[in-house]
Design brief:
Layout lengths: L1 H21 L8 H35 L22 H30 L6 E8 L2 E6 L4 E4 L6 E6 L3 E8 L4 E5 L4 E5 L5 E6 L4 E7 L11 E7 L1 H10 L13 H7 L2
Parallel strand pairs: 1-5, 4-10
Antiparallel strand pairs: 1-2, 2-3, 5-8, 6-7, 6-9, 9-10
Length: 261
């Protein structure tokens, strides 16, 4: 009984930790992040249903067909429950049910990916260049450039409720554009362009960072995305010097490398 109680406590603790970890997902703030959260919830429900069914069947089997040591079978062996051999119905069931579950989850995943990769009309285009160890945001249609510095992380200002077309690349090594509340991460690869859209729902400032280890000053490669109303965004654009950096210029890769210990 003591051993059984310890096992039960271990299982309960593990389940509680899993539920707590599942609840640590940042609240989604973009249309694309909502698609990620919904897909996660659907997978979590499917896992809970399958896990619950397995636990129920195991428990029923243990309780109903467990060994009864008080009643001895032939030659002192414990009694055995009725044995089933070559049950076509069971074999079909445990083959088709997992296939159906995987097919449904696959279909849901394709739908979520379609929503995440969809490109919207209108909005603002931002060319994002990652380099060691900062970010450069260029608004090609507006003639504005924002470039971060060693102590001044670059800030991308965008309007809420409109598609933001991000064109991402790297000037040197592999980096990764990551804003936790977007529930989305995309690599910045030298010589390759990754394009994606985000539509932010709530006006606020969202912190981000490079999520790919890129060198000695990787921890300084921070960024922020400030979502504002369209009127505030237009006023911000009008206040920026056209064709020049809106923040202190970041050091070049060679200069930063020479400063490394």
């Amino acid at each position: 009984m003591i051993r059984h109680g310890r096992r039960t406590g271990l299982v309960a603790t593990t389940a509680a930790l899993g539920l707590a970890a599942a609840g640590c997902m940042p609240a989604p703030v973009t249309d694309q992040a909502v698609a990620v959260r919904d897909l996660w919830a659907q997978f979590l429900i499917a896992a809970a249903v399958v896990g619950g069914a397995v636990w129920l069947l195991i428990t029923v089997s243990i309780v109903r067909y467990g060994r009864r040591s008080a009643v001895a079978g032939p030659d002192g062996a414990a009694p055995q429950p009725p044995q089933l051999h070559g049950s076509t119905r069971l074999e079909i069931a445990w083959t088709l049910i997992p296939i159906a579950i995987v097919a449904v989850l696959f279909w849901l995943t394709l739908g979520a990916l379609g929503r995440i990769d969809a490109r919207g009309a209108g909005g603002v285009t931002v060319e994002v260049t990652a380099y060691r160890w900062q970010w450069r945001f260029v608004y090609p249609e507006l003639g504005v450039t924002v470039e971060g510095g060693p102590d001044t992380p670059a800030e991308m200002v965008v309007p809420v409720g409109e598609p933001i077309h991000i064109v991402l690349t790297s000037a040197d090594v592999a980096h990764s554009f990551y804003v936790p509340q977007f529930l989305f991460k995309r690599d910045a690869i030298p010589g390759q362009v990754n394009a994606f859209d985000v539509t932010i729902r709530e006006a606020a400032t969202y912190r981000g960072q490079c999520a790919e280890f890129c060198g000695v000053f990787h921890d300084r490669m921070l960024l922020s995305v400030r979502a504002v109303s369209r009127a505030e965004f237009d006023a911000w654009v009008a206040s920026q010097p056209k064709g020049s950096a809106a923040a202190s210029s970041a050091p070049s890769s060679s200069a930063a490398s020479s400063a490394a210990p």
